[in-house]
Structure formats: C-alpha cells, structure tokens
Amino acid sequence: MIDLRLDEEHEALRKTVQEFARDEVAPVIGDFYEREEFPYEIVAKMGRMGLFGLPFSEEYGGMGGDYFALCLALEELARVDSSVAITLEAGVSLGAMPIYRFGTAEQKQRWLPRLTTGEQLGAFGLTEPGGGSDAGATRTTAKLDGDHWVINGSKAFITNSGTDITELVTVTAVTDVKPNGRKEITAIVIPSGTSGFTVSKKYSKVGWNASDTRELAFADVRVPAENIIGEQGRGYAQFLSILDEGRVAIAALSVGLAQGCVDECLRYVGEREAFGHKIGTYQAIQFKIADMEVRAHTARLAYYAAAAKMLRGEPFKREAAIAKLVSSNAAMDNAREATQIFGGYGFMNEFPVGRFYRDAKILEIGEGTSEVQRMLIARELGVG
C-alpha cells in the first residue's frame, strides 16, 4: 500500500517551519503587507534556519535535502503569508536552482554559497513586457563583443530582483537567429549593479505586497562571456525544466494558502455569533468549510504525487501541471469562501483572509497560467 506519511526528517522540518510561521511571521507580517515593505529580518531568519539551502548539497552551503523539503516549507509558510513564501520559492527555484542545475563548477562556487544561505537573493528574468505566457517570444538580445556579452532589452514581473540583498539576475536573451527564423535563446547571469542594468521602482500590486517584484531594463549591459549558464542556445529548454520543478513548488504554496483559509475559518466560526448562535452551528457554514478542507486535501495529494515522481527521476511534467492547476484553483476557491464566511471582516487587510484573497489570484497566473497547465496536460495525453 502507498504510505503518505512523512518520514522523521521531513516531519521535523514541517513542524519547525510551522512554528516559525506562527510565532515569527504571523504577528508582524500584516504591518509589512500594509506598508508594502520587504521583510528583511524575516528573510534573514529564514536564511539562518537553512530554508534557502534545503534542496542544495552541503558543498555549496546547502542543507543536503531534497526538493520535497522545500515544498513542505513553502506550504507551512503560505498557511500564514504568501509574500514570505514566494520570496523563498523564487530565491530557490528561480534564483539559485538554474546555477545549481546547469552552472559550471566555478559558477557554483562563486554564487551558490551566498544564495543557499539566504545572505543574498537571486532572480530569473524570463517574462517580457507584452510577452506574457509566450515566454519563447524573447526580444532581449545578447551579442558577443570580444570576451563580453552586450545585453539590451527588458523583463517584467521579476521577483526578488530589486532588494538590497539581490546579488544577480539570470536572464534569457536571443544570442542568434537561425536562417529558418528560429531564435537561439541563452541564459546569462547579470550581477546587480552592472552598468546599464536598471531596476524599476516596485510595482503597485493587488497582492504579495510584502514581496519584491519589478521591471528590469538592460541598455548595453556588458558581462563576461563566461556568465552563460549551461550551453549557448539551451536557455529556453533549461528554463522549461526549471519551470516544471517550480510548478510543484507553487502548488505547495497554493496548498498552504488553501489550508490557511481553513485554519482561519475554524478559529473564526467558533467565536463569531449570529442570530443567537455560533456561526459554526449552521449547516451552510459547515458545508463551506468541509468543501474547503476537501480542496486543500486533494491538492496536497496532487503535489505530493508530482514531487514523488520528480524525486524518483521519472518524467513528471503532466503531474506538475495537474498539481499546479488543482492547487491554484483550490487556493482561489478557498480564499473566496473564507472571505464570505468572515463577511465584512474578510474585506479588511488586517485579517489574514483578506490578504489570502488578494494573494490567491496570482497563483492562477504565475509560473504558467491555468490555461497553460491545461494545454500541457492535454499535450502529455497526446491531444492536439
């Protein structure tokens, strides 16, 4: 029989992050969210706990764990706040992982030790203004000039790209166009502070207000030729591989938000009275919460299944897309129902469910829209 119980190490990690989220994040994150301020001290504490190094080997300052450990941490953080969770997810999955998976030994030694300990953050620049889900429509260019690449273009919606501790951004750029018109896309690291690399002011966002998201511009940015990550011309393919893993991570984050909605509602319905009774005594409320728990539970099973195939080294593209689709739907539906249960208080940012509602929608968009997930699932089934 299948055993879905966590082993001792994973359960210990889950409990540790749960306690951290409850005791360290929950009491203060609302103020950061309201001020739209990046929570540097919380991120530093996460670094000291080793969360940024969970899936990386000890050789590079990591914890020697696996990707599932990262997913468990993301779920527990997102039960309290998604801004903190997405900072960890993007720092690991998009900032450090491309270097870990595809970088040279020298690149890993140069950049990973600070990224895996959380001292510095990395970001990944793929999406471009006007590009949206069509990540292959890259317009940013990189031309070789002697022993340097000269990069021109822009990127949009880039997480962790403009904090005081951002060390680098890996960007995709067109390095050649073949006679048949096919673009050769390559991943290149641009260190923060490089001349010509401009980071815009923070976006005014609907949600994730305590995370860092910006637009980037490159005007004749020069970086050494050896800053290429992986093979020249393989940048897009490399990122698709990274994105499959990232979808499992986003699924875990989504499950955390969905479960957080259940947590908050269970507390609230035991306190709130209406028409002379605790509202938890009304069947309409009971059914809402039961449906919310079902969504969170089934979404968790979906990301567990995808993570299991990933760790076994088996193809998991379809399972990752299923997990991302199911869990983001669960997060959005649960946030809506939780807001309804809380009534007017659910519309207030001071209550967690208000933040959950604002944070949930992006989960159906980021790292592949729900429509993209359906397209991937259909393709994996041989349809179209």
From TrEMBL:
Name of one Pfam family that matches: Acyl-CoA_dh_1
Domain Acyl-CoA dehydrogenase/oxidase C-terminal: 233-381
Gene source species: Herbihabitans rhizosphaerae
Keyword Ribonucleoprotein recorded: no
Domain Acyl-CoA oxidase/dehydrogenase middle residue range list: 123-221
Cofactor(s) required for function per UniProt: FAD
Record's keyword annotation contains Flavoprotein: yes
Coiled-coil boundaries: none
Assigned keywords, A-Z: FAD, Flavoprotein, Oxidoreductase
UniProt record similarity statement: Belongs to the acyl-CoA dehydrogenase family.
Superkingdom assignment: Bacteria
A GO MF term: acyl-CoA dehydrogenase activity
Protein name as it appears in the record: Alkylation response protein AidB-like acyl-CoA dehydrogenase
Residues of the Acyl-CoA dehydrogenase/oxidase N-terminal domain: 8-119
